[in-house]
Write a structure and sequence with these properties.
Rossmann fold, 2 helices, 13% strand, single chain, two-stranded antiparallel sheet, 4 strands, two-stranded parallel sheet
């Protein structure tokens, strides 16, 4: 399992409850990835996903995960995922019906 410890609200340094060093130390002791982010400014938000996916990819490459089992939670291949009949909430409060689409996200 790959787990990332994320310290959020990095833009509010004056209201900090946990020091960077404390977060890093805890993550290291528990074999976690550590990163500080700010959802407000988007600082390191994408990086959090990139670091986690990189570790997962490296673990796959090393053979750490049993990809022949569904228990790993990882599917290998170029599957297309479709979301049928779901809705998306728009910024104006309205909803928009999604059409079935190939790919993810």
């Amino acid at each position: 399992m790959t787990i990332m410890l994320i310290g959020n609200k990095g833009d509010l340094d004056a209201r900090r409850q946990v020091s960077t060093e404390e977060g890093e130390r805890f993550a290291k002791e528990h074999d976690l990835i550590f990163l500080e982010t700010s959802a407000k400014t988007a600082y390191n938000v994408e990086e959090a996903f990139l670091q986690t996916s990189t570790v997962i990819y490296e673990n796959i490459d090393k053979g750490i995960y049993d990809l022949s089992s569904d228990k790993s939670g990882i599917r290998v291949g170029n599957e297309s995922f479709a979301i049928q009949g779901s809705t998306t909430r728009l910024g104006d409060g309205n909803t928009k019906k999604k059409e079935a689409a190939g790919g993810c996200c």
